Amino acid sequence: MSVSRLQHIPGIGVDLMGDRADRERDDRMLRLENLDTDLRPHPAAIARTLEAVHEDGANSYLPFQGGVALREAAAAHVGRMAGRTYDPIGECVITAGGLNGILNTLLATLEPGDEVVMTDPIYAGLVNRVRLAGGVPRFVPLRPTTSGWTLDPEALAAAVSDRTGAVLVMSPSMPTGSVLDRSHWTALAQVLDGHRAWLVYDAAMERIRFDGRSPVHPASIDGLQDRTITVGAASKELRMIGWRVGWVVGPRSIVRDIDLVGLSNVVCQVGIAQDAVAVALSAPDADQDVARAAAVWKDRSDTIVDQLRGFPVVPPHGGWSVLIDTTSIGMTPTEASEKLFALGRVAATPMNGWGPSGDRYLRLVFANEPVERLADLRSRFEAAWGTRPR
């Protein structure tokens, strides 16, 4: 590497596997490697995008902090989830996607060398952004079980020290689909009381739940209201990946700094996309729209878990992906991926660099393949890996 800040930042692997699968031009290939989805956005969002193409106001840098309509919609959405009110002008800024919001937030909250508490496994893109911002990841292991992932609330809280600059968590998390509940937030509220650290909540998938429970937003918990920064995105829940729109909502004092970072980074968002996202967030049937999509994804997740019964699958409680511990059956994730690609015609990404335990797991994304295409998944795995007991 030519500069030191890149020494501990590997790629994410998804790009390589996606490019490789594209080159195959094989319609039989199951595309389980990348976080795309075939489910369309809300029809009103598509219509509003088409209208905006012809509007001069949508072809502008201004306002740099994001369109007022979208800031109002995003602030209202986060406020509804958190059970409080946010000022859309002073406590909300729009970003070019959720991960742009994450990086801007980390740059605005971390001093070089600060630790950032994260769960493990975790998306490599989050780990890499912590390192780009000068932070040091402090991992708290998730525990895999036959019914899903668990996390000890006290272990999460115990990872916070005087070196902690931020706690960065998702719920549901990517790629595990693990969820955090009131016990986790309460434990963090106790340990963060009087602490300098911020709680950065990546809410990109918070309503994509398979466990029948409503999400508990950390800013609804006593002690966390004034230290929670919520980063959201249109990509997952709203299925608006190509629109590249996200938002950051939090206390006025820190949002001002995040805005300053944004002005020095990507500067502004996609103009023709913003009103469309506002429409999707605030539509009368917005919750039902997300729930319908989540139900489809749950069916796909259940199909994969059922098809691969007997393989070391850890079921998700939400999100877009499911993990398989390939090391428990004698293969590295890379070896397992290669066999699936060549013999099963399945594209799946090894999780090297996705936290310390990522080297154990292969990820299957179910957001982009319908149930009908997953019906022969077991035979594909058996062709690649051999048979397993049902």
| Largest sheet strand order | 2-10-9-8-7-3-4
Coarse morphology? globular
Low-confidence segments, ≥5 residues, pLDDT <50?
none
Largest sheet: 7 strands, mixed
- Count structural domains: 2
State the total count of DSSP E strands. 15
Number of helices: 12
Molecular structure report:
This protein is α/β, with parallel strands linked by helices and 390 residues long. The strands form four sheets. A seven-stranded mixed beta sheet has the order 2-10-9-8-7-3-4, sandwiched between helices. Strands 11-12-15-14 form a four-stranded antiparallel beta sheet, covered by helices on one side. Strands 1-13 form a two-stranded parallel ribbon. It starts with 13 loop residues before the first helix and ends in a 5-residue tail after the last helix. A hairpin with a 2-residue loop joins β5 and β6. The protein contains twelve helices and 15 strands. The protein folds into two domains: 135 residues, Alpha-Beta Complex (Aspartate Aminotransferase, domain 1); 243 residues, Aspartate Aminotransferase, domain 2 (3-Layer(aba) Sandwich), CATH 3.40.640. The radius of gyration is 20 Å and the shape is globular. It is 36% helix and 16% strand. α4 packs parallel to α5 and α4 crosses α8. The model has no long low-confidence stretch (mean pLDDT 96). The longest helix has 22 residues.
